[in-house]
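To: structure desk
From: M.T.
Subject: fold request, one chain
Message: Could you run this one when you get a chance? Sequence is below, nothing fancy, just the single chain.
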Amino acid sequence: MRVSVSGKQFVFPRSCACCGAYPLTTLPVSGAEKNKKARTRGWVWDIPYCSSCKRHIRAIEGISLVVLFLIAASFSIGMYVLAVTRLWELGLEAWMFSTAFTGSLAWASIKLVRRRSSKNCCGLGRAVAYQGSVGTCHSFDLKSGFYAAEFVRANHKKLVNVTPQVASILRGTKFGEHQVPRRLLRHQKH
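Reply: Done. Structure tokens follow.
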């Protein structure tokens, strides 16, 4: 679910963004933008995750890097065999064999990571992704439905470009002071 919020500091709920368990660690989400004067501005937010989810996210990110390296290596092997033997069929076979090996290795690794992850996990990768910004409006892609609902409720005063999904979360919700940072609260006069 895509959620757009305006500001620089946001409340990220104290539950694992992937499975909802109590978070003991965080993973950073970052983004950058060039302004009109060609200066780059960057943002980093720490997203809470439990230890188990952080392990499977790191494993999937590692598998992705290894697969990319092996695909490049398999192409290089195919080109090397083609250059040495001058037989394009042999070079193509070497490339196809090494690519098939890479695919089967990646499939087995992902299956192992999936088996070790919790059934409550919303996926194997990061549950929160930064989509970019326009001025002070930042957009996040939240894969977990319950975490998206908590994030929307915690940052309800900063929401912009509200989608029908986000509006449905806000309907009938009563907001308490504990969900908004103290510095943002305006104390009412009695």
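Reply (cont.): The mean pLDDT is 83. Let me know if you need anything else for the meeting.
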